[in-house]
C-alpha cells in the first residue's frame, strides 16, 4: 500500500510532510485484546467512545506520536493507581496499548512513526486540567477513542484516545 505524502504548512509557516489518511480508518488500528504478562487481559469493548468520556479520568498517561504521522496517544484510567507497582503497571499497560495502535497504523500505512515513553499525568496537575478541557472540546474528527476493560487486579477501565496533530494529513 502506498502512502500519499503531501506538504502542509505548520503554524510557524514551515513546510512539513504529512500522510494523507482518512480519519475514519483510525478505529481499525486499536488492538482487540492483549494478555498483560499473564496477570490479566485488556479487552477492547465494542462501542466507540467520544472524547468527553475521557474528561472524568483520574489518571492520564500520555505518549507522543512522531514521524510520518504526528499526534498524541492518551490512556485515560478510571481510577488512580494505588501502590507504586500499580503506577508502573498502569504506565506499562498504556505503553503496550499505544504501541500496538501505532505499530498497526504504521504497518497498514507503510509509514515510519514512533511513540515516546509514557508520561503519567495525575488529577490536579496543570497538564491534567489541559487534557480534560481538550477532551471536553474534542469533536469526532479530533479524538478517536476506544474503551478497554482490564480483568486483572486491579480491575480498571481504560480509554485509549488518539488525537492526530492538526498539522498531520488526517485533519
How would you concisely characterize the structure shown here?
With 171 residues, the chain is of the alpha+beta class.
Quick tags:
single chain, 171 residues, alpha+beta, Chemotaxis protein chec, 8-stranded antiparallel sheet, two-stranded antiparallel sheet, disordered N terminus
Draw up the topology in text.
Elements: E1 5-9, E2 15-19, E3 33-35, E4 41-49, E5 59-67, E6 71-77, H1 84-109, E7 113-115, E8 119-122, H2 126-137, E9 144-150, E10 156-164
Antiparallel strand pairs: 1-2, 3-4, 4-9, 5-6, 5-7, 5-8, 6-10, 9-10
Q: What is the number of helices?
A: 2
Radius of gyration: 16 Å
Helix content: 10-25%
| Quaternary organisation of the protein chains | single chain
CATH homologous superfamily grouping: CheC-like
The domain tally reads: 1
What is the N-to-C order of secondary-structure elements (H for helix, E for strand)? EEEEEEHEEHEE
What is the CATH topology?
A: Chemotaxis protein chec
Query: What's the shape?
Result: globular
Our estimate of the beta-strand percent is 35-45%
Q: Would you identify the regions where 5 or more consecutive residues have pLDDT less than 50?
A: 1-18
CATH architecture: 3-Layer(aba) Sandwich
Average per-residue pLDDT, rounded, comes to 81
Structural class: alpha+beta
Count of distinct strands = 10
Outline the structure in words:
With 171 residues, the protein is α+β, with helices and mostly antiparallel strands. The chain has one domain: CheC-like (Chemotaxis protein chec). Helices cover 22% and strands 36% of the residues. The protein is built from two helices and ten strands, in the order ββββββαββαββ. It has helices at 84-109, 126-137, and strands at residues 5-9, 15-19, 33-35, 41-49, 59-67, 71-77, 113-115, 119-122, 144-150, 156-164. Strands 3, 4, 5, 6, 7, 8, 9 and 10 form an eight-stranded antiparallel beta sheet that branches. A two-stranded antiparallel ribbon has the order 1-2. A hairpin with a 5-residue loop joins β1 and β2 (15-19). It is globular and about 40 Å long.
Amino acid at each position: 500500500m502506498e502512502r500519499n505524502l503531501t506538504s502542509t504548512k505548520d503554524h510557524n509557516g514551515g513546510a512539513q510532510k504529512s500522510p494523507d489518511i482518512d480519519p475514519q480508518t483510525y478505529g481499525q488500528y486499536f488492538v482487540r485484546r492483549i494478555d498483560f504478562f499473564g496477570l490479566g487481559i485488556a479487552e477492547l469493548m465494542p462501542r466507540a467512545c467520544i472524547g468527553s468520556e475521557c474528561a472524568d479520568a483520574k489518571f492520564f498517561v500520555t505518549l507522543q506520536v512522531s514521524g510520518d504521522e504526528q499526534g498524541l496517544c492518551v490512556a485515560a484510567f478510571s481510577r488512580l493507581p494505588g501502590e507504586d507497582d500499580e503506577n508502573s503497571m498502569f504506565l506499562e499497560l498504556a505503553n503496550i496499548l499505544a504501541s500496538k495502535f501505532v505499530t498497526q497504523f504504521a504497518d497498514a500505512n507503510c509509514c515510519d512513526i514512533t511513540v515516546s515513553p509514557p508520561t503519567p499525568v495525575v488529577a490536579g496537575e496543570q497538564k491534567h486540567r489541559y487534557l480534560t478541557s481538550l477532551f471536553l472540546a474534542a469533536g469526532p474528527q479530533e479524538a478517536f477513542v476506544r474503551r478497554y476493560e482490564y480483568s486483572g487486579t486491579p480491575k480498571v477501565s481504560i480509554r485509549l484516545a488518539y488525537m492526530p496533530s492538526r498539522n498531520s494529513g488526517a485533519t
